[in-house]
Amino acid sequence: MSFKLLARSASRLPRLALAISRNSLPLASTYSQHSQYRHHSTKTVRLTAENYPDVKRDPRFAHLTDTDLAFFRSVVGDKQVITDSNDLAAYNEDWMRKYRGQSKVVLKPKSTSEISTLLKYCNEHLLAVVPQGGNTSLVGGSVPVFDEVVISVANLNRVRSFDETSGILKADSGVILENAESFLAEHGAVFPLDLGAKGSCFIGGNIATNAGGLRLLRYGSLHGSVLGLEAVLPDGTIYDSMHSLRKDNTGYDLKQLFIGSEGTLGIITGISILCPARPRSVNVAFLGLESYDKVRETFRRARADLCEILSAFEFMDRKSQVFASRFTGLPHPLAGEDNTDVPDYPFYVLIEVSGSNKEHDDAKLESFLESVMEDETVADGTVSQDETQLKTLWRWRESISEASTMFGGVFKYDVSLPLPKMYSLVDSVAERLKEKGLLSFEDSSKPVADAIGYGHIGDGNLHLNVCVREYAKEVEEALEPFVYEQVQANRGSISAEHGVGFQKKHYIQYSKSPVEIQMIKDLKKHYDPKGIMNPYKYI
Amino acid sequence: MSSKIRILVPIKRVIDAALKPRINKAHNGVESKGVKFSINPFDDIAVEEAVKIRKNNKDLVESIHAVSIGPSKAKDVLRTALAKGVDTSSLVDVGDTELEPLAVSKILKKIQEEQGSNLIIMGKQAIDDDAGQAGQMLAGLLGWSQATNASKVTINDDFTAEVEKEIDGGIETVRAPLPLIITTDLRLNTPKFVTLPKMMKAKKKPLKVVNPADLGLDLENRLETVSLEEPAARKAGIKVKSVDELISKMKELKAI
């Protein structure tokens, strides 16, 4: 699973040494292997405060003092209080290099009670706080906007328990998703969530943002699989429902409030999650198709024919494959005999099947593929013959996200749309950018290289990535609110799985009604009356 | 010398190269239940090379035959080979018996005789037992030339082959007339994905099952695996506070 990591600056690397209990994980090599592909623009990221002059620092919030720092040190120890500006950079900057905060201090507590003490203090002293996990947010949700105190849960990184009978995993929120996955693999289970950033993101952050990912089609959303949480409220109160049972119909289901709350209500410190049995046989097919309609038809047939073994159905447009091919330097799996180029099919589909009986699963997949090939729903395709090929095929889907930043940066839109109209958004955005003279793949003087589309057909979730050479204001203005208006017109969601964060705060009304927005505000006010938790974002 | 090249590619079904094998409870072999099996990676390269040779020497190559010795499930790897461009195939169904390299070579010699092959391309070793002997033993039994660990193969019109092999600090090139055995190394080529239409066509290509008893060979194993152990786990390291402490620790351990 080497390529799925989002390698960042070297200062983040020590986290890898904090392997979870009973496990030593060979991650360091995959990290460094990956960094060679990263094409960081050397330009420094502009301060969010400069880029968005309309957003003003809330004057109610206090400025950090030496007294505060002394208190923090007394709680978490000197080493867990980071104030050196070089070390702070990685916590202030987001993964897309689009947002940069100005926090003066990062705290790395080692226990829930330390977090409770810290939050209580910040709440009393009106110090704004940004909870941070793996900092892989795609909407600027995990970095400060001004001088908020960053509280990282990186040191809360232990698996607490795993029950092999029930499949319930209890773990700290700072466990890296891939570490949780490797731990579970040894116990014959699987984490019900998988996504490209798995080498960096924390499971606590996944829950705080209600991450969707590649397995949602099969295992459903975190709202279903999370059984209980441990979280610290702004006033220091510790909410604990870690004991939770699969069935419990007493009172409001409070944990749901935190799933997708993006750090605005408190800091998640522990999670209890139901993990399905690990499939013993997994196979992947990679197909080339002539049109978007055929993609939909293939999905319909896959659902009918593959039924319970279908575990992922991902689509990618040709442009996204061109990016992936440049990024990875690999020959395309459907390339012809004598070249390595991406073939001319406008769409590609990756189908994963997983089950418990290889003969049965293979036979099912084979008869499905034969039927869609025979009636020409699918133009060409391949099936992995071994584990290495399986991973390579996944790479053509999973590397797109990183490949999209190859030219310098990316505007990411992650929307839910009704399937019939889903892809037309990519075309209309590309057309609009071309009309405005902003887009050219060849001409490097244009700010936009291309607009590409891919995503989870199974979940009606499109990733529209506008790959840019620089973050130009006129590009942003061409895209927003245009994209959101298109989504609203089609009754979709402006954020299917990336969340709201800083980027989409002002666009939430495109997906939520005034009543819904008021109820969210009421809840926020109730649990965080002083508004110190992750301010300037979400609502 | 016949006027055409008839290629034989022996392939083995092994535990997938990307998986970590586990030792079984009896400590005499590797756990094979519930484990994914695939084609031996070196053999995959051999198949790819055979197809490539035909592509580059259209008029010279008459046929490519693949053979596997293993359980009936090894048909899967033969189907893959057929999809990649092999013409015909045979499975010597030995069930779950693990044959030793000499027995394998004897069977391959029979298949060579039956097929009239004059060029055998095979993996330099199978990644399960890592014996790395079958190619050489087969060359001995047949009395043929052999070029091992090939990193590049060129077939000439005069029925000679030039084979490069990576050696310390350089490349060794050998040249030999057919008949010849070539064993493949990792860098010879990168196997391609097989497309679905080819996979579907491969189902109609011949796959003959051979009963090893009919070959009239002595296939008795001569070796016994006494025990199989995992390498000792590495001990956890310690942290030292200063350079002085580091030096004294190293002295203690007689490392300096």
From TrEMBL, chain A:
Alphabetical list of PROSITE patterns matching this protein: FAD_PCMH
Residues of the FAD-binding PCMH-type domain: 99-278
- The question of whether Protease is a record keyword is answered with no
State its cofactor: FAD
* Gene3D superfamilies in UniProt: 3.30.465.10, 3.30.70.2190, 3.30.70.2740, Uridine Diphospho-n-acetylenolpyruvylglucosamine Reductase, domain 2 (3.30.43.10), Vanillyl-alcohol Oxidase, Chain A, domain 4 (1.10.45.10)
Q: What is its main location?
A: mitochondrion
Query: Which PANTHER family does the record cross-reference, listed alphabetically?
Result: D-2-HYDROXYGLUTARATE DEHYDROGENASE, MITOCHONDRIAL (PTHR43716:SF1)
Q: What is this protein called?
A: D-2-hydroxyglutarate dehydrogenase, mitochondrial
Automatic annotation (TrEMBL), chain B:
PANTHER family of this UniProt entry? ELECTRON TRANSFER FLAVOPROTEIN BETA-SUBUNIT, ELECTRON TRANSFER FLAVOPROTEIN SUBUNIT BETA
Keyword vocabulary terms for this entry: Electron transport, Mitochondrion, Transport
Q: Name one GO molecular function term.
A: electron transfer activity
**Does this UniProt record's set of keywords contain Transport?**
yes
| Source organism, top-level taxon | Eukaryota
| Assembly | Heterodimer of an alpha and a beta subunit.
By its UniProt entry, which Pfam families does this protein fall under?
ETF (PF01012)
> Which GO biological process annotations does it have?
amino acid catabolic process; fatty acid beta-oxidation using acyl-CoA dehydrogenase
User: What is the recorded name of this protein?
Assistant: Probable electron transfer flavoprotein subunit beta
Q: Which protein family is named in the record?
A: Belongs to the ETF beta-subunit/FixA family.
Q: Which SUPFAM superfamilies match?
A: Adenine nucleotide alpha hydrolases-like
| Cellular localization per UniProt | Mitochondrion matrix
User: Which CDD domains does this one have?
Assistant: ETF_beta (cd01714)
Provide the Electron transfer flavoprotein alpha/beta-subunit N-terminal domain boundaries. Answer: 27-219
**Annotated InterPro entries:** ET-Flavoprotein_bsu_CS, ETF_a/b_N, ETF_b, ETF_beta_N, Rossmann-like_a/b/a_fold
Cofactor binding: number and manner: Binds 1 AMP per subunit.
Any Gene Ontology CC annotation: mitochondrial matrix
Species classification: Eukaryota, Fungi, Dikarya, Ascomycota, Saccharomycotina
- What is the scientific name of the source organism? Brettanomyces naardenensis
Cofactor requirements of the protein: AMP; FAD
Its biological function? The electron transfer flavoprotein serves as a specific electron acceptor for several dehydrogenases, including five acyl-CoA dehydrogenases, glutaryl-CoA and sarcosine dehydrogenase. It transfers the electrons to the main mitochondrial respiratory chain via ETF-ubiquinone oxidoreductase (ETF dehydrogenase).
